[in-house]
Amino acid sequence: MNEALTGLIRPLVRALHPYVPGEQPKIKGLVKLNTNENPYPPSPRVLAAVKEAVDGRLRLYPNSTVQPLREKLAKLHGCRPENIIIGNGSDELLALATRAFVEPAQVGVAADMGRRLQRGKAAALSRARPHWATIQYFVPSYSVYPVLTEIHGALHHAVALPADFALPLDRFGGGAGQVFADAALTFVTTPNAPTGRGYSTKDLEALCRELRGVVVLDEAYVDFADENALSLALKYPHVLVARTFSKAYSLCFQRVGYCVGHPELVAALDKIKDSYNVNGLGQVAALATLDDLPYYRANFRRVIAARERVSGELRELGFEVLPSQTNFIFTKPPRFPADAWLRELRARKVLVRWFSPPETRDHLRISIGTEAEMDALLRAARRILKETGGRKARPTTR
Ligand SMILES: *Cc1c(COP(=O)(O)O)cnc(C)c1O
């Protein structure tokens, strides 16, 4: 490390724990079930539209407001283009939300004290709760939220989910482990990841009604679920729904996501985005996607059918499998610790995901692939169980 250079980097950035994306290894014949990508390619119409667009026009800037796509999405969702902002993947919109709705902690403390002083409550100063600097999220859920909180220099309010991963609707208060109604921003992954658990619109509405800050309902996997909560973004001005073309619409590579919500919150995000945040080919691909929705709906049905079949077969092998409303399953494997299973499966060219934090370390997250890929997973699992029959669980890296 070069001391002089390190000194040029903000302490916050030096201390940062970055998000660790799933591996993208180039191993021949690998069954890749670790990053929730859709196993089916984009529609032929989408591929044709993108190829069609690759010509001299690449020298031009793309549409900065992504107007055609917003208009098309507005029609689809029964709202107005003003209700919609497009991002470079929905990850960008999550980051923009932290910057638009949350104060960095130092500023937040000052702002909160200022408000209390104005109200003449000097005694409350020592107990100042800098809620405008607080980002709230549930654990486990999408592990990007704590990273965004750190990057922004905001305060974490992590709420542990109960053993069944239901929303803790009986735990409002703001103390440790309670839902904090005054958090500036609350992220809810729904259906949840990596657990796969779905949340009813009724429960989400009950949560949103209690929360006074902005709520982002992150619906990255909602196309594989029975319900979606888009109506809440159009009913409650403080609620935004985030969606993405990545997972359900086989478009991870192109980086297109969007948020739906009140025009005033949407305008706030729009104000701070880069001018040309959504690349041109991504816009072309997303527009063409919306012209061929039946193709994708057929894929959702195939993924859901495979999810249900594999869940049943894994249960027969002794795996505990949580009911899933997504394109992955969260499962506690038998006999060995989950990270030992990760290695055994990898040795047989099947890559799944394991998260080391205490609340997830007993489980594997397995993305749903094609029927053939899922058969390969089941074959590998059966072989592992057979070859290790009777053998004691070996020590792991814990
Ligand atoms: C994958 C994922 C995203 C990000 O999707 P992109 O649109 O590809 O940025 C957001 N939220 C959750 C919960 C995800 O799993």
Outline of this structure?
The chain is an alpha/beta fold and 398 residues long. 38% of the residues lie in helices and 13% in strands. Helix 9 links the parallel strand 6 and strand 7.
List keywords for this structure.
alpha/beta, 398 residues, 14 helices, binds pyridoxal-5'-phosphate, three-stranded antiparallel β-sheet, seven-stranded mixed β-sheet, 13% strand
- Which shape, going by the Cα principal axes? globular
Mean model confidence by pLDDT: 92
Record field, number of beta strands: 12
Helix content: 25-40%
What is the strand arrangement across the widest sheet?
Answer: 2-8-7-6-5-3-4
Order of helices and strands: HHEHHEHHEHEEHEHEEHHHEEHEEH
Q: Structural class from helices and strands?
A: alpha/beta
Bound molecules: pyridoxal-5'-phosphate
Distance between the termini: 29 Å
Rg from alpha-carbon coordinates:
22 Å
Number of helices: 14
SS strand fraction: 5-15%
How is the main sheet built? Answer: 7 strands, mixed
| Uncertain stretches of 5 or more adjacent residues | 122-127
Write structural notes for this entry:
The protein has 398 residues and is α/β, with parallel strands linked by helices. Helix content is 38%, strand content 13%. The protein contains 14 helices and twelve strands. The protein has helices at residues 3-6, 11-14, 44-53, 67-77, 90-101, 105-118, 144-152, 201-210, 230-235, 263-272, 280-290, 293-316, 338-347, 371-387; strands at 31-32, 84-87, 134-139, 155-160, 185-189, 214-218, 239-244, 257-260, 320-321, 328-332, 350-351, 364-367. A seven-stranded mixed sheet has the order 2-8-7-6-5-3-4, with helices on both faces. Strands 9-10-12 form a three-stranded antiparallel sheet. α9 (230-235) links the parallel β6 (214-218) and β7 (239-244). α12 runs parallel beside α14. Residues 89-91, 142, 189, 193, 218, 220, 244, 246-247, 252, 257 line the site of pyridoxal-5'-phosphate.
